[in-house]
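Practice record 12: protein with pyridoxal-5'-phosphate.
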Amino acid sequence: MELEPERTVRERYAAFLHELSEVAGQFGRTSSEVTILAVTKAQPTEAIAAAIDLGLRDIGENYLQEARRKFAALRTGMTRFRKHFLGHVQTNKAKAIVEEFDMVQSVDRIDAGRALAKAARESGKQLPVLIQLNISPTQRFGARPDEAEGLADALRADGLAVEGVMAIGPVTDDAGELSRAFEQAAKTFGRVGGSTLSLGMSADWRQAVESGSTMVRIGSALFGARDRAGEVNV
Ligand SMILES: *Cc1c(COP(=O)(O)O)cnc(C)c1O
């Protein structure tokens, strides 16, 4: 018997919320301090609809073409939600990214940020961004933590609203390595400033909440395994 996908997502979400408030409480925080970003890459359009039906209002996608197709397929009149771009920013796609998304979490170098700033100016759109940090030797993208503050300053001077930082944790079984990486992200967030520390995914959000994350990016824990095996931000 096939499971009704909506119901599965609903159950996963209920379990997630329960655990989030438990984990937040363990670290003297409340779950209301942590925004849940539903990451729907490599999931069908219905995953976005299901997330919105559950009351989630922040949706993350990594690939411009895929996102464009899915956003267009959503039924019209659907409650508005915030679209977050998580993928690598190619400068020649900046205009299309600005048109399609409300926030870009993956600005990791000056030319990408400048291209977004220019496109946002030209379309008269406010585009909040996060600086993507590299805190893991296995990650290809991301600004070095010691360069993040300078990058944020330069982009703010260019008119971009830099609202914080985003980072992808190292894939590791070593809890010490993970928490050192997350502490580095939290410290860098303190220097960059802003309101959003986007840290933590399905496998490591608990440690991220401990390190002060204000936004966890959750894909497989809400929607199940992806068709395309586990790729992140490629
Ligand atoms: C895919 C992805 C996620 C979600 O990953 P899960 O492990 O499925 O929760 C979060 N952040 C980024 C940047 C991603 O690429």
